[in-house]
Design goal:
The structure is a single chain. The chain is mostly helical. The chain has 7 helices and no strands. The protein is 73% helix and 0% strand. The model has no long low-confidence stretch (mean pLDDT 95).
Length: 124
Amino acid sequence: ALLLNDPVLAVRHTAALTLAVLGDARAESAARALAQDPASEGLPQPHFVLGSAALRRGDLQAARRELLRAVALVPYHADALVLLADGELRLGDAPQAREWLYEALRFNPQHRGAHERLRLARGG
């Protein structure tokens, strides 16, 4: 956490992602700072962290916005695609959720979470 204000972008980025992996509450504000900074807004991971946090809070529109940004930056980001599907399932749009899941599986055919969610999106 002491490195979140480091002058080196790579250090701030790594610190924010490490906090996110550890479940530290400071990760979201660190990711937001990276996502809003012109020098780092093109990095997909801060948007993924923000999308994940928004999804956990139930803010489905913010989750969609951030996860779509992550996928726009890295179209093969299977975890972001799976979380987009989670949001669509929560909104009741199973067909869109399936599309995101098929896309995730196209890039990562072994993604266990995508397979599990696809089974749920199909209704069992």
